[in-house]
Specification:
- By secondary structure, the chain is mostly helical.
- It has a single domain, classed as ABC transporter involved in vitamin B12 uptake, BtuC.
- 75% of the residues lie in helices and 1% in strands.
- The chain is built from twelve helices and two strands.
- It has a two-stranded antiparallel ribbon with strand order 1-2.
- The chain is globular, with a radius of gyration of 20 Å.
Length: 321
């Protein structure tokens, strides 16, 4: 009994330390830019807008976490978001299904893309980043065909999820579902088991391939929710080709690395949410400074490399999945 209490106390202490570290990151990142450019950065109103923007990527990142915690990767995130947003918009407007068409269309499309990704990865037995890169080109082409080369615009009466409280409600529902799946279902238990040691998981009788595919499906569904928030926030979506959609990959990926880094504290989902907020504070800080886009991209690239270096350890001889 005493040992159990001590273990619980240590767990709570670790979580407290993790939250304090995340809060410190928020304060430091805000403080640096507030000192440099006090007039056009970091007011309460500005901070609320930064947080609203961070919700978009955070929703996608919590879904992508199911894939990444297993050691897999997905380069079709941006293509999935673009395709899901366009399909949702088409169902909402051309088929006159309103919010039902927008939400269901986007989420089902995202989950279907995830199912295709997972199935191809399991069947072809080649690294997930190669599979999803090839598939991203196909998704871009499909999105372009559905859009007919025309920008898809969401009418103003269907943009409730692009502002408070609609975006917050949808995001909180998504976060709650992700939390329940990870902590209170067989899916979460097996996800962590496979991520920790796939060989041992197989010997325990876990159907590894089944849960890998399921991880991609879950990730895709959450990216579908992100697509709803994205097109509602920006009001339109343009279908691009030639891997141009990959620019949408990096912000959710960076947030997901926060989740991996803070998994040891037992708080991956809060870490992803706050981590995306930190990333947006930095992005908007550079905008307030008037920094060129090229400089912002350089900083983003370096930040991503540092986060990857600090949060991932590939054993000698290990093959990237």
């Amino acid at each position: 009994m005493k040992a159990t209490k001590e273990k619980t106390g240590k767990k709570l202490s670790a979580k407290t330390g993790g939250y304090l570290l995340l809060i410190l990151m928020v304060v430091v990142s805000w403080g640096i830019f507030k000192i440099i450019t006090p007039d056009n950065f970091g007011s309460p109103k500005n901070m609320l807008s930064y947080f609203e923007a961070s919700l978009l990527a955070a929703v996608g990142a919590v879904g992508f976490y199911f894939v990444m915690v297993m050691g897999m990767f997905d380069f079709s995130i941006g293509a999935n978001i673009m395709l899901s947003a366009i399909v949702g918009c088409v169902f909402a407007t051309k088929f006159n299904l309103g919010y039902v068409g927008l939400v269901v269309g986007a989420i089902v499309t995202g989950a279907l893309v995830g199912l295709i990704n997972g199935s191809f990865y399991v069947k072809l037995r080649i690294p997930s980043m190669i599979v999803t890169t090839g598939l991203a080109l196909i998704y871009e082409s499909v999105a372009n065909y559905i859009a007919g080369g025309v920008e898809q615009t969401l009418p103003s009466n269907l943009r409730a999820f692009g502002q408070m409280p609609g975006n917050l409600i949808l995001a909180v529902i998504a976060f709650a579902i992700a939390y329940l799946l990870l902590n209170y279902t067989k899916i979460g238990t097996y996800t962590y088991a496979i991520g920790s040691n796939e060989f041992v998981a197989k010997n325990m009788g876990i159907k590894v391939n089944k849960y890998k595919i399921l991880a991609f499906v879950i990730s895709g569904a959450f990216l579908g929710v992100m697509a709803v928030l994205t097109i509602s926030y920006g009001s339109s979506m343009v279908a691009v080709t030639g891997m141009a959609s990959m620019s949408r990959n990096f912000v959710p990926t960076m947030g997901c690395f926060f989740g991996l880094a803070f998994k040891k504290y037992g708080m991956p989902i809060p870490a992803i949410i706050i981590g995306e907020f930190v990333i947006n504070i930095i992005f908007f800080g550079f905008i307030a400074l008037g920094a060129p886009t090229a400089i912002q991209d350089v900083i983003t690239g370096f930040a991503l490399l540092i986060i990857v270096m600090l949060t991932t350890k590939v054993a000698k001889g290990e093959i990237v999945k």
